[in-house]
Amino acid sequence: MPLPQPIPDLVSLDLLASVATLGSIRQAAIAHGISQPAASTRLRVLEGTLGLELLNRSSGGAQLTPAGRVVVQWSEQVLGDLRALLTATSALRREGRTQVHVAASMTVAEYLAPEWLVRLAGLDPELHVSLDMANSEHVVEMVRDGRAALGFVEGVSSLAGLRSQVLLHDELVLVVAPHHPWARRRTPVSPEELAATPLVLREPGSGTREVLEGWLARSGLEVTAMVELGSTTAIKRAVESGVAPAVLSLLTIHREVRDGRLVTVALRDGELSRAIRVIWSRTESLSPAAKRVLTRIHAVIDDREVLSRSLGAASEE
Predict the structure, then answer these.
(1) N vs C: which end of the chain shows fewer Cβ within 10 Å?
(2) CATH for 99-316?
């Protein structure tokens, strides 16, 4: 229901409580950082608002009247609640400025995000970013339902209801163990051969798998799974053991190729490429902190040295 009018000034109520504690209007004024005349004026306005005499004023100081003592007692809870409200809203403002929750696909989370977040911490120490890992499909769901302010995905075909920006491009490559027959092959593997060969695959919903399936689908083909694994690291170990070939992001295998543990094999009919994107809600505005995260990550990616190191550029390997 509407509050009765007029409403007493809460700052003046706090000033009255200080008079009760400190014993004089002068000391209360000092505690509140205002002049004694300003404090006296505030207290007289408060008396007029409440229609009560709250203080007995004399040359020796000011003493609370019985009504004044009751008002101070009644105002304790109100002022306590106000202080709690101000403390809580201040915390919310700080959280809104600095806390950002993001989600990233497995490839991005394992091979790009650590570099980004370390550099981001150096560029903007006040930003605190928490990161969840999931496959690209689940990252999209987290952004759609508000569990993440930003998402980082690759190879996702359906981004309905979301905004997106391309951050960089990635290439998928066919890899085999050094002792696999394809490791010494001189001719590219055709889509038909790849579709007929059981592969080590990521689970459905993975951006890597979606790109591979789309590439084969353009030739009317489907993938054949030898085994499905939930992490790129597990797939690499399986391929190294000779279980089956796999198609993986170039981001993820440059060290294994450099050390001779994996061998890349050319594919016919062009490269498998994909865009790595940042996504966010189309309907909800990005918070200032989320905008800062996005701006900083763009700056990190634009740094040629960092990007080259993240991608494992062939010239440096």
Answers:
(1) N
(2) 3.40.190.290
